[in-house]
Design goal:
Elements (H helix, E strand, L loop, with lengths): L7 E9 L3 H12 L7 E7 L6 H8 L4 E4 L6 H10 L3 E8 L2 E2 L4 H11 L3 E9 L5 E2 L2 E2 L4 H9 L1 H4 L19 E4 L1 E2 L3 E5 H7 L11 H11 L3 E12 L9 H19 L2 H31 L3 H19 L12
Parallel strand pairs: 1-2, 1-4, 2-3, 6-12
Antiparallel strand pairs: 4-11, 5-12, 6-7, 6-11, 8-10, 9-12
Length: about 325
């Protein structure tokens, strides 16, 4: 492991929030790679309430730990980590990932061999080996319609119905895509500096879309690198606040569309989301008494509350990120 003041081939930046056990597994998988001696590892902890910081200091003394004083969100914490990074490449890695030996080096090899590529992300698999759809097209009214209408699930392998998650591509191959999931995203340090880092207006979600959108505006490509995978639990921090994380996802999507698609697309997306949520709310509300008879009142009640909150958000005056999630 290189010193924080020495050059490194790759600086790995891991944002953590109350995921101590998963973070330990992630760090161990990185250390298990023989090439790790050429890497710098940084953990930016968003004021976790568990023993994440103490665990890293005790078990992984070579890691540079940034113990932040509050939860700044994913984008801002990544930027704090990048401030102390010394690598030629920056790998932004979620704390709930496990990285196979050789994967990080192969992503760096690809960037070095492909000058036109600004960002590269590996294929993501769930712990059970199933594919996570982590290559995506940019949010917009069409994707909102496809998702809420159910067409993207009914015809995932057909263009344009599978567009939101690019479910029609070969996920074992190299693909030029709109954006890749921020759970595993590598880019050159020079590109990161040119972009000005992650946009901190996003607290959680869509910040990866924003970063990739700005990279593509430079004329560079964003690459989904299917030949290599990492294991990703997914939503380990957000799962603790499921309703609020869903709301934050909608807020961030609205912000992305307003910023990069324009006001007309923003208002159309709000309308389509409202029209998509309303029938779901009505259907679950009608089904609730029957679910209660079958002993499923809690699950159905949670769905009713979720749809009600999303509908209220769509009809509210302020639908953009507030930064209040999980604080």
């Amino acid at each position: 492991m290189v010193r924080s003041d020495s050059p490194a081939r790759v600086s790995i930046i891991i944002v953590s929030f109350n995921t101590a056990d998963l973070l330990a597994d992630c760090l161990q998988s990185v250390y298990d790679d023989p090439d790790s001696e050429h890497w710098q590892i940084i953990v930016a902890d968003n004021a976790s309430g568990d023993d994440s910081v103490a665990m890293v200091l005790e078990r992984f003394p070579g890691v540079h730990v940034l113990a932040l004083d509050r939860n700044y969100g994913f984008a801002a914490a990544n930027n704090r980590g990048a401030e102390v990074a010394c690598g030629d490449h920056l790998l932004f890695l979620n704390s709930d990932t496990v990285v196979p030996v050789g994967a990080i080096g192969e992503l760096a090899d690809y960037l070095e061999a492909t000058p036109d590529a600004a960002i590269v992300g590996a294929r993501l698999l769930s712990p059970d080996g199933s594919l996570q759809l982590s290559a995506r097209s940019f949010p917009g009214p069409l994707n909102t319609f496809l998702l809420y209408s159910g067409l993207s699930r009914l015809l995932p392998g057909v263009r344009p119905f599978g567009a939101p998650y690019l479910s029609y591509i070969d996920h074992t191959q190299v693909n030029d895509v709109d954006y890749v999931d921020g759970a595993c995203l590598m880019m050159r340090r020079a590109t990161f500096d040119r972009l000005g880092g992650w946009c901190e207006d996003y607290f959680l979600y869509a910040e990866d879309a924003d970063l990739c959108f700005r990279a593509r505006q430079l004329g560079a490509s964003v690459i989904y690198y299917g030949p290599r995978h990492i294991t990703h639990v997914g939503g380990a921090s957000a799962a603790r606040v499921a309703v609020r994380s869903t709301l934050e996802s909608h807020r961030s999507t609205f912000l992305f569309i307003l910023r990069h698609r324009g006001r007309a697309a923003f208002w159309l997306t709000r309308l389509l989301t409202t029209l998509g949520v309303l029938p779901r709310l009505l259907a679950t509300a009608i089904a609730y008494p029957f679910a209660a008879l079958l002993g499923r009142a809690d699950a159905m009640g949670s769905r009713v509350r979720l749809y009600r909150r999303v509908l209220a958000l769509c009809l509210s005056r302020n639908v953009l990120p507030t930064g209040g999630l999980m604080r």
